Amino acid sequence: MNTAPAMPAPPAPMRPRRRALAPLEPVSPRAQWLLGLGFFVLFFTVWGIFTLGGYVSPTFLASPVTMAREGWLLFTEFNFIHDIGMTVWRVFGGFALATLIAVPLGIAMGAHKGIEAFLEPFVSFCRYLPASAFIPLLILWAGIGEMQKVLVIFIGSVFQILLMVAVSVGSARKDLVEAAYTLGAQPSGIVKRVLIPGAAPEIAEILRLVLGWAWTYVIVAELIGSSSGIGHMITDSQSLLNTGQIIFGIIVIGLIGLISDFAFKALNRRLFAWSSL
Amino acid sequence: MEFPVKNQLSIRGVSRVFVSPKGQKTQALTPVDFEVRENDFVTILGPSGCGKSTLLRIVAGLDHPTTGTVLLDGNKVEGPGADRGMVFQSYTLFPWLSIEQNIRFGLRERGMPEAQQKERADYFIAKVGLRGFEHHFPKQLSGGMQQRTAIARALANDPKILLLDEPFGALDNQTRVLMQELLLGIWESAQKTVLFVTHDIDEAIFMANRVAVFSARPGRIKTELAVNFPHPRHYTIKTSPEFMAIKAQLTEEIRAESMAADLH
C-alpha cells in the first residue's frame, strides 16, 4: 500500500501575546479610540516641531498656535460663522436637489432595464466630467450668485448618485422578487415594496458617500467669483499670505464633514436597523 | 367509496429547453404530462439537477415552458400569481419586514383591510408555532423558523395549490423531520393541494399520497407510486416494513438515475 509523503512538523501554536498582530484580529473599543486619537496627536506634534522649531518659514506654513489664534480672530473679527453657514447651505442645497432628482431616476433605471439602457451610457459619460470644469460655463449661465455654486454641487453629485442607486436597485435579490410575485404582487408593488425597501440602506450609504464628495466641489466653486463661504475665505487668506487662516479653514471643512458623516451614519443605523442584524 | 375528485392541476406536454448565450441548447425537461387532484399531496422525487425544480417553477409561472401548457382549474398559467403559493429552498423572507409583516405581505398586496390582515396573520403564526416572534426580523430567527414563516406566508394567502421547492433542504436533519410533521399536520387539518419537490426519499414517502419519480436530465416522470398510509401519520411509520419496502424500491429507482446523471 502506498503511504503519503512525510509532512514537516506543524509550527508551534501562536503565543497569545502576539494575537494583537494577527490579521483580522479585532481591537478593543478603547484601543480603537486611543489609536485614532493618537494619529491626530502625532500629526500636530510633527507640525508643531517643524513650525515652532523654525525649520519652516512662517510665510509658508503657520504653526498650530498661530492657526488657532487666527481661527479665533476669524470668528470674532471676520464673522466666519456666516461663511460656514453659506458653505453648508450651498452643499446641502445642491446635494438635496441632486438627491431629489437622482434617487427616483436611479430607482427607475435599476428597476427597468429599458430605462437603464436608455440613460446609462449618457450618465456614465457625464460621471467622468469634472464638476469644476463646468464652473466657467455655469458662471456664464447662472452668473456668480448662489445658483452657480449650488449647480456645481448638483452636477458633481447627481450623476454619481444616479448610477450607484441604479446599480444598487438593479442588484436586488431575484429570489425575493420571485417570492413577491408568487404572493400576488404586481410589477408596481415589486418596485415599491420589494426593490425600494431592499435597496434603501444601500441608497442611504450612497448618499452619505456622495455628500462627502460634495464638500470637495463646494470649495472649488467658492474659489472662483464668490464673496462668502469657506472657500472664499481661503482665497482671501492666500492673497494675504495668512496660512494660519487657510489651514484653519481646511480643518473646519474636515470637522463639518466628519460631523455630518457621523450624523448620517447614526441616522442610517436607526432607520435601517434590520440591515445590520 | 371513491369521491368524485377533479384534477386541479394539469401539466400537459410541458418541456423546457435552456439556450445559453452562446446558443448551446440544454434540454432540462422532456415533455411531461402530469395531473394533480384537488387536495392531493404529491411529492416529486429526483436526483439533483434533474429538472424537477424547473417543472415546479413553470407551474408557479416563474419560468415558461418551451412546449406544452399548465392548467390550474382549467385556466392556463401565464405567469406567477397568488393562486399558487410557493416556498423556496433559499430563505426568501423580506429581511426588512417583521415576521408578522412578512406573513401579511400577500394580503396587503391584494388590499385586504388591515384588521383582517392581522387576524389572518395571527392565525397562521399560531399554526406554525411562532407566537412570541411576531415582531422579530427574519435574521433573528433560525433557518427552521424562517421556513415556517415562509410556509405561513404562503398559506395565509389561501392559494389553490401550495408549491414547495425543497423547502427543508437547507435545514439540519432533526429540524427537517420536525418540519415535515408540522407541514403534514397542517395539510391534514386543512386540506390543500400540495406539490412538493425533494431529493430526500424518506421525506418524499412520509409526506405524500403519491410520489412521482423523476429521471435524470433531461427530466421526465419515470415512475408514479401511490403511498397509502392512513392519516394522521406519525413519524414512527418511517420504520414500518411497508415504508421500508417503498423506500427500497424508490432507492433503487433513484440510484439508477443518479448514476445515469453522473455518467452524463
What does this structure look like?
The complex is a heterodimer of chains A (277) and B (264). Chain A is mainly alpha-helical and 277 residues long. Chain A has one domain (67-271): MetI-like (MetI-like fold, Orthogonal Bundle), CATH 1.10.3720. Chain A is built from ten helices and no strands. Chain A has helices at 29-52, 64-77, 80-111, 113-127, 135-142, 146-170, 174-182, 187-223, 230-239, 243-271. The mean pLDDT of chain A is 89. Chain B is α/β, with parallel strands linked by helices and 264 residues long. Chain B has seven helices and ten strands. In chain B, helix 2 packs across helix 3, helix 2 runs parallel beside helix 4 (143-156) and helix 3 crosses helix 4 (143-156). The chains are: A mainly alpha (277), B alpha/beta (264). The A-B interface holds A 173, 175-176, 178-186, 189, 193-194, 197-198, 200, 272-275, 277 and B 60-62, 79-82, 84-86, 88, 90, 92, 94-97, 105-106, 108-110, 137, 139-140, 150, 153-154, 157, 163.
CATH class of the domain at 1-83 and 196-264 in chain B: Alpha Beta
For the CA atoms, what is the radius of gyration of chain B? 19 Å
What composes the largest sheet of chain A?
Answer: none
Summed over residues and divided by their number, the pLDDT of chain A gives a mean of 89
**CATH fold annotation of the domain at 1-83 and 196-264 in chain B:** Rossmann fold
Instruction: Figure out the total of helices of chain A.
Output: 10
**Uncertain runs of chain B with pLDDT below 50, 5 residues or more?**
none
Instruction: Report Rg of chain A.
Output: 25 Å
Strand order of the largest sheet of chain B: 6-7-8-3-9-10
Largest sheet of chain B: 6 strands, mixed
Cα separation of the termini of chain A: 53 Å
Q: Please, what is the average pLDDT of chain B? A: 90
> Roughly what percent helix of chain B?
25-40%
Largest interface: A-B, 23 and 30 residues
Please state the structural category of chain A: mainly alpha
- Name of the CATH class of chain A: Mainly Alpha
Q: Helicity range of the residues of chain A?
A: over 70%
Secondary-structure element pattern of chain B, one letter each: EEEHEEEHHHEHEHEEH
